[in-house]
Amino acid sequence: MKLSFAQLSSILSAYVVENKISVASFVETRENLVGLIDTIGKIFTFDTSYVDKLAEFDGEELSYGKNLEEWQQDLMLPEDYSASGDNALAPHNPTYRPVDFSYSLGRKMIPTSLKNNDIERAVHNEGEFISIANMRTKRLYDSVAVWRYGVKREILAKLIALCDKVKTDATAYAAATSFAVGAYIKGGSPLVYGVVVKAITGGATETNSWAKCLAGGYVILLDLVSEVAVPTDTASGEAFIKQVKADVEVASDISEGHSLNGNCLGATEGLVLLVKQGIIPSVEVDVLAGAFHEDKVAMPAEVKVIKDFGSDNTDVFAILMDKRGMRLHNTYRAVRENLNGAGDFLNLFYHSEDTAHISRNTYVKIYRKLSA
Question: Which pTM value belongs to this model?
Answer without folding.
Answer: 0.90
